[in-house]
Amino acid sequence: MKHLVPLVLAAVLAAAGCSLDSANDTPEGTVKVVVGYQSKTINTVTAGTLLRAQGYLEQRLRRLTDAGGSKYQVEWQDYDTGAPITAQMVAEKIDIGSMGDYPLLINGSRTQANERAKTALVSVTGYNPKGALNMVVVPPDSSVAGLDGLAGQKISASVGSAGHGTLVQALTRAGIDPAKGVEVLNQQPQVGASALESHQVGALSQFVAWPGLLVFQNKAKLLYDGAELNVPTFHGVVARRSYSAEHPEVLEAFLAAQLDATTFLRDKPFEAAKIVADGSGLPQEVVYLYNGPAGTSFDVTLKPSLIQALKGDVPYLKSIGDFAELNIDGFVDDGPLRTVYAQYGAGNYDTALASTVNPSRIGGTDPVCGRPVGESAGEVWIEGAERPQPAADATCLLRAVQQAKSQGKVVRAAYIPDAELGTRWFADKSIWLRDGDAYLPFTTPAAAQRYRQSHPGAVTVGYDQAVTEVRG
């Protein structure tokens, strides 16, 4: 019987007027596109998890088919990091992939020797202008208060990743030789998370969403905020040039679909966070930390500042012996994206390119303090509410939490920007200082200490204490 199944299938297909390509089981005459993405690297969601869940790419391709074009088949492949996506692109088995900035460079470097595998950087998914997408965390009971306390310790990182690159730069600035002053264990994020929890390593340096996830789960505390480097970090999309040349309409459909996903995320960030949480297995509270307003800047344009930062990453990659010389200006290709902007009514590309404002911001009026919100705004997510409510500043956020608790309501999460660096973070995981009547949150002990040095009257208070004592 098992030998008859292929014959029967072939007969059915023949009767239907089609056949299967024996190499990839794709019906003859159908154009296949293989997309590699990272469901848990949630700053790639507009080219991955959210894009896939909403079906935007399939919808765009179906329009081409309905207009008399070819039929298309999309295959999605989910990975933990960018390295296996690059390996599959080298093998010509993935056509379009998304990953972080350091892996993007490695991708361009490793694929360039083969014309069929050679890739181009065609869009950005999301970025942080200061580098806050990468962080170093330590166990909750760690006594280490700064990077200098990691000297001589084992640190988990995915070598070649953006998280590892941040670690190398941060240690160097702290006067620690990243090659000799610490022992870096090359581990996948989930392996490193287990190593941190079991105290096999003293710290873990990773990209989003791992630091936020571990801190949210009370399995780690934040030691170093990548925003201290003040160097942009981003995630983007690469496409095989040979595939794009053969099927330019597919790449254009992908970029148009990415714009669809980006617009949806900007317009409905809370709903988008739920979709991404369902698709990635991450808690919605963690997804919303990064994908919510005032978090990651979701902007597809290939900004000069990001490309310049990419060039600045090259010395790190050379230092780990993982990089063949790459013409970065030649690697970046905004032609297809410009075409999509022009043809799909996405607006003026150059105007979007020049903008440095986070397109997703917290708006509205603080219902507790009764005033419009601005750049220092946070959000309070109360269980059962339709969506998080805005808080004008850190002190107003504490008042909102105090009010909710006095009414017997459960606060699922509260988000507030760091008073120094502006990084959006969990309010209950922040380091809090009281300076007069004002309350100030910081992502790390080091940031709080820097403030205290210039404001000797500021005192440390616990989050619960701050919620209890804040004046209404």
UniProtKB/TrEMBL annotation:
Residues 121-272 form the SsuA/THI5-like domain. InterPro entries: SsuA/THI5. It comes from the Bacteria. The keyword Signal applies. The keyword Signal applies. PANTHER family: ABC TRANSPORTER SUBSTRATE-BINDING PROTEIN, ALIPHATIC SULFONATES-BINDING PROTEIN-RELATED. This is ABC transporter substrate-binding protein.
